[in-house]
Amino acid sequence: MPNPKSGTVTTDVTKVVNAIKKATRVAYRVEKGGIIHAPIGKASFPVEQLEEAFAEGVVTAHKAMPEFVLDPADNRDLIGYLRSIQAEP
User: Fold this and answer.
1) What's phi and psi for 40, nearest 5 deg?
2) 49 with 87, same domain?
3) Are residues 44 and 9 in the same domain?
4) How far is CA 25 from the centre of its chain?
5) Residues 49, 20 share a domain
6) Residue scoring higher pLDDT (77 or 47)
7) Nearest in space to 62 (alpha carbons), one of 44, 36, 28, 86
8) What is the pLDDT of residue 87?
9) How far is CA 58 from CA 32, 36, 64, 70, 78, in A?
């Protein structure tokens, strides 16, 4: 549904249409647990373009995150998890 909060209701239609076409504005949702829902492209896009869009999204989200400190036990668990999901070269 159109909503002024999400920017889908406006008096400057040209500006909004141009922003959407240029992909300078992306709609996203964030859950309480820190999960971000955001589109990175269409299934018909080349894999390289999707990878680039995903990487840019991760970098942008990381810059916007507040800093926090993990205790050493949490660091160990997080590093173990990240190593377990890394793809083989």
Assistant:
1) -115, -5
2) yes
3) no
4) 12
5) no
6) 47
7) 36
8) 58
9) 18, 10, 10, 20, 17
Are the C-beta atoms of 49 and 39 separated by less than 8 Å?
no
Domain encompassing residue 54:
40-89
Tell me the torsion sign for CA atoms 62, 68, 74, 79.
positive
Same structural domain, 88 and 47: yes
Based on the structure, what is the number of domains in the chain? 2
Burial class (CB in 10 A: 0-12, 13-18, 19+), 75: exposed
Beta bridge partners of 37: 29
The per-residue pLDDT of the chain, averaged, comes to 78
Distance of CA 62 to the CA centre of its chain: 9
Mean pLDDT score, 31-55: 85
Q: Which helix (H) or strand (E) holds 36?
A: strand 36-37
- Asked whether residue 89 carries a pLDDT value surpassing 60, the answer given is no
